[in-house]
Amino acid sequence: MTDAVRIELSVNGRRRTVDVEPHHTLLDMLRDDLALTGTKECCLVGECGACSVLVDGAAVDSCLMLGVEADGLEITTVEGLGHHDRLDPLQAAFLETGAVQCGFCIPGQLIAARAMLSLNPSPTRADVEEGLAGNLCRCAGYEQIIEAVLAAARDGNATEPRTPEARSTGDPAATPDARVAPQ
Amino acid sequence: MRAFSYERPAHLDDAVALLAEHGPEGARLLAGGTDLIIRLRDGTLRPKVVVDVKRISEIDGSIREAGDVLRIGARTTMTDIAADARIRRDYAALAEGAAVVGSVQIRNRATLAGNICNASPAADTSPALLVFGAIVVLAGPAGERRVPLDGFFVRSGVTTLAPGELVVAIELPLPADARGSTHVRRTRRRGHDLASVTLACLVSADGVTRIAYGSLGPRPWLVIDEAGVLADASASDAAKLERLEAMFVDASPSSTSLRASPDYRLAMLRVLGSRAVVAAGEQLRASGAA
């Protein structure tokens, strides 16, 4: 066993200090060390996209990135979309169009869609297909998912700015997960 | 995943020293990680230390002119390459190839340097790099050296990178005159898939056509039509096809790959080769030459 490495990063707008084992992926760290279980573990080879998160605003597969690589970076998980009392417009559109069936792939779909819309607020259907090509849905809910993303884009509020500060609440040190290092 | 330690050297000398200390089995380089982490997890690689190259000051993610080449730093991702205006204009086949690697999530992490070091015969950037005459800039215990990419690939997963060396940058000679280029490929489905055939074509105003193709043997192959048959508007389609077939003589698709049968790949190689020659020629004419 090797020693854990202390890293500092921003997760959903909150500064976090984590002692992470070098062989733990960003996915492991989010789920096991930070108790953010919205991000899903599935194929572990970068094909399904269930583990997608934003790293400095870009969608990546968190199963293919080490936790230590996130040192100094800004991570957004599905928990960072919307607010506790208000859904992100994309989340609302997914519900309205019936895009959520079993739900397992949805966090990754939402993250990929958010990343695509931030670069391209008025996507064509082909743009959405390409933007979500790295996210598989085994319920085969693709039509509804694409429809939801297009609907969110049409409503024009899909790119509502969500600064980390706006989402930040409470004391970063007052986190429930035991493995977070003292600040 | 088996435990390993993690090093993030700030300077090239430190990285070279780490590689020398731990040897090729003991230390593995980490850039984008999209191939490495899969193999760390499945146990095919069991290094003692993973050396992250992303914060080495001498290795950057920039794409810039340096003398008579366009220099692409080893940290440059597929997303950066596909979006770069200079590459889209002067090295269109490379931008097109980078744009179809994996998914958005993969392209945001995967680096061009990692793609060539992984040396997959199906890599979608390799054909374009070969037709543009890419040079790999390596650093190691003996200092820096430059290797033409055609002399870098050996077979799947094997390159002429010596123990203790790492890729610092990839250089593309600047275009000497007008030209057209394109990348084409065949996959089982649209979206995220590995290529059954991946091919790039570059036609220059002097009539020379360069084609490189992958997923048809242990490494991607570069072939050149110096005679100018493929770019000759007066040559018959039959003459061009005959020339292409002669150029594709080294194609040796695996009979064990599940993606496509050898016969299918060879048939598609001819089709894609012919289409790419036409498309690259159209680009050349659109650029105002010929």
Explain what the structure shows.
The complex is a heterodimer of chains A (183) and B (290). With 183 residues, chain A is α+β, with helices and mostly antiparallel strands. Chain A has two domains: 5-79, Roll (Ubiquitin-like (UB roll)); 89-154, Orthogonal Bundle (DNA polymerase, domain 1), CATH 1.10.150.120. In chain A, 30% of the residues lie in helices and 14% in strands. Chain A has helices at residues 26-33, 89-96, 106-119, 125-131, 142-154, 164-167, and strands at residues 5-11, 14-20, 52-55, 58-61, 74-76. In chain A, strand 1 (5-11) and strand 2 (14-20) form a beta hairpin. In chain A, helix 2 packs across helix 5 (142-154). The longest helix of chain A has 14 residues, at 106-119. Chain A is globular. Chain A starts with a strand and ends in a 16-residue tail after the last helix. In chain A, 49% of the residues are buried. With 290 residues, chain B is of the alpha+beta class. Chain B folds into three domains: 5-52, Uridine Diphospho-n-acetylenolpyruvylglucosamine Reductase, domain 2, CATH 3.30.43.10; 63-173, Uridine Diphospho-n-acetylenolpyruvylglucosamine Reductase, domain 3 (2-Layer Sandwich), CATH 3.30.465.10; 179-286, 2-Layer Sandwich (Enolase-like, domain 1), CATH 3.30.390.50. A five-stranded antiparallel β-sheet of chain B has the order 4-5-10-6-7. The longest helix of chain B has 25 residues, at 262-286. The radius of gyration of chain B is 19 Å and the shape is globular. The mean pLDDT of chain B is 95. At the A-B interface, strand 4, helix 3 and helix 4 of A face helix 2 and helix 6 of B.
Architecture blueprint of SSEs:
The complex is a heterodimer of chains A (183) and B (290).
Chain A: E1 5-11, E2 14-20, H1 26-33, E3 52-55, E4 58-61, E5 74-76, H2 89-96, H3 106-119, H4 125-131, H5 142-154, H6 164-167
Parallel strand pairs in A: 1-5
Antiparallel strand pairs in A: 1-2, 3-4, 3-5
Chain B: E1 5-7, H1 12-26, E2 27-30, H2 36-41, E3 49-52, E4 63-66, E5 69-73, H3 78-83, H4 85-90, H5 92-99, H6 104-107, H7 112-118, H8 126-131, E6 135-140, E7 143-148, E8 153-155, E9 158-159, E10 166-173, E11 179-186, E12 197-204, E13 209-214, E14 221-225, H9 237-247, H10 262-286
Parallel strand pairs in B: 1-3, 2-3
Antiparallel strand pairs in B: 4-5, 5-10, 6-7, 6-10, 8-9, 11-12, 12-13, 13-14
